[in-house]
What we know:
With 253 residues, the protein is α+β, with helices and mostly antiparallel strands. The mean pLDDT is 92. The protein has helices spanning 9-13, 74-82, 118-143, 149-158, 162-177, 193-203, 212-221, 226-238, and strands spanning 17-21, 24-28, 34-35, 37-49, 53-60, 63-70, 87-98, 105-115, 210-211, 242-243, 249-252. A hairpin with a 3-residue loop joins strand 4 (37-49) and strand 5 (53-60). The protein is built from 8 helices and 11 strands.
Amino acid sequence: xxxxxxxxxxxxxxxxxxxxxxxxxYVVTPGxxxxxxxxxxxxxxxxxxxxxxxxxxxxxxxGTFRVTANWQSPDAVETLGCIEPPAFVAVTxxxxxxxxxxxxxxxxxxEALCAVSRTVRDLWVxxxxxxxxxxxxxxxxxxxxxxxxxxxxALRLYGTTEEEIREMAGTVRTALASVRPDLxxxxxxxxxxxxxxxxxxxxxxxxxxVGVEDAVAAGVRSGLSAREARxxxxxxxxxxxxxxxxxxxxxxx
Length: 253
């Protein structure tokens, strides 16, 4: 399985170069990140598109990611279409640099996504901050003639200075300030998709009856992908937890 990196939006948005290495293309940021597979978490602030292509803006404490989902990832397209901004989401996808030179901009092509809680967002900020500070240390070492090959390449591409490294470290501190000081990570207990959907339907009028698409959307808001929500709905129907009083309608027993 390909590894995924965590990078803040401001660093990715400043990327203007790609590097081919090991049979793959990486978007390289001024902060020293080599981005191919990405895992980002933030708040969806804008979402628009069609059944074939959805474009969204997802904000973290440092800036905004441009995210697209297209026909190659139909589950991501449908899931994103069910989420009403603002809402926290986690996205796994691929970094792509569109255009060239000063007009270039980085996007994240979503392969999978789901709604998440504020706690998940805060945990992601902590992990992204740690990864960013490690890269900045490598950049500082590269300025002094040390560091690893990736840091040396980023330094060559952007000519990053000590002052810019301090500014990027300040951005990390700003991001960390957004994490709730009373963040508590409790025991993580896996919950079956059908149980998540059943709970969502019980809260969302399932006893009175809802449309199938509304039931799927309720599953997405509870943290399932659209595909997982449809599968959970089939399981609830098979288990007799709900039935279809009319075509396109779902009603809990």
